[in-house]
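Lab meeting minutes (informal)
Scribe: AK
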Amino acid sequence: MGGRRIGHWLVIVLLVLNCLALFGIVNVWFDEKEAPDPAQSRETPEIPVAPMLRSKQSLNEFRVVATKNLFSQDRTGPDLGPDATQQCQGSLEGKILLGTMIIGNQRVALIGHSSTKKKTKDDPVDTLRLGEQWEGYKVMEITNDAVVFQGRDGKTTLNFPE
């Protein structure tokens, strides 16, 4: 009889342990309270704001750096004042609109130089933004298929080639 008693107690203890295990699994599985995420509890460092990589000034504003002798004490060379681009207005003859990029408020036009020679990857391409001065013209408008310039003689439009 002693063996039966131990058997009953063993069954009861196993039954209680199984119930506790089942209760623990159900409690963990269906508990709506989530454990706090350790990654969220730590303070994150502030991300610095990166400065603009390119200024809004046109490259013609820096032409004096290339034309005057940097290694001379008196910096002799041709004088390019602020009105130099207005005085030496070029022609759009031989210029070709290669493409436009419009991303949000940013509008950029790619202008190439057309010629009869075969095109190579080293051919110069000018990148123009709205309001920039370029060869005596001011970029007034950039659309999907044209660029409008304001020059000494009025407005001029450069369209995609046909």
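Next up, CB showed the second protein from the same session:
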Amino acid sequence: MTTPPPIIEIVGLTKSYADHEVLKGVDLTVRQGAIHALLGSNGAGKTTVVRTLSTLLKADSGTAVVHGHDVATAPHRVRESISLTGQFAAVDEVLTGRENLVLVAELRRLREPGVVADELLARFDLTEAGGRRAGTYSGGMRRRLDIAMSLIGNPPVLFLDEPTTGLDPQSRLEVWATIRELAGRGTTVLLTTQYLDEAEQLADRIAILHEGRIIADGTLAELKQLFPPAEVEYVEKQPSLEEIFLAIVGHDHDHHDTHAPAAPSNPAKDAR
């Protein structure tokens, strides 16, 4: 089986705000068609990475290439290849769902914006709600509409910056289903999240960003190899992603590599 080519390549990315160093040399490769989760605590630098990749911020040093275009030297080409959905839905709540989609299609100068809007309403199960004001939508519906708006023009790369922040459990499940459907159609998704179960449920690969560096990157199975082997008495308990995360981040501050970390002394306590 041929490995898909990289669609995002980051090498040595750094970014500081005054005296505060946020990114300290980030290296990351995202393969075409993958859901790649960037997992980290608040303040780890996840949003800074996404804003740099989407040309909203300029890095201090390092390189970042998206869909074959350098974000520093060809930002307009990068913007043609991506879409960004932030932590809060950017829909106009006064307009109907359909009007939001038509407006974006017109701004992108697409032919037959009404047809584009109707197709996306059907694709995201919003047809019945399309004539209602977006302000009446549930959180999950607003987020699905927001993602639908970001897909107008069929960008090959989609950045989702903590897309389920503030959503109830049912709405989170709706958004998860939407993200899986996007990946199934070939869209590359870089997903930032602080929710461990979200990364575990959705991602093909998971990169852990801690104190400005990627300290682990791999499939869930590969990350499980970083966790010390279970002591088998009767039944072997596989570590959860939460336990792996705490072992790498919470108990390996001095080592920014993928060597096996020490096991947490009390994972249940640390998880609180």
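CB comment: The first strand starts at residue 6 and ends at 17.
No objections, moving on.
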